[in-house]
Protein: YggT family protein
Organism: Helicobacter anseris
Amino acid sequence: MVELILFLHYLISIYTWIIIIASLLTWIKMDYNHPIARFLFQITNPLFEFVRSKISLQYQGIDFTPLVIVIVLSVVDKLLLGVF
């Protein structure tokens, strides 16, 4: 059980960093056809689109979806580690 919780903790941490990197990449002018950028967006966009379909998190042109997802993942991670 401990191994599963640690595995989920590492998975959440990695996915959180992927979300942060993908979000930062949207702020810079770059080629979105680059393999790394495509990989990051393919991993994050399904979750972004799911959350966006449930609630609108855009305010004055800024999309807060990644921030909300990172906060939720952080809470889930803390709850998992609290069980551990």
User: Anything to note?
Assistant: The chain is about 75% helix and 5% strand. The mean pLDDT is 92. The helical segments are 2-25, 35-54, 65-83.
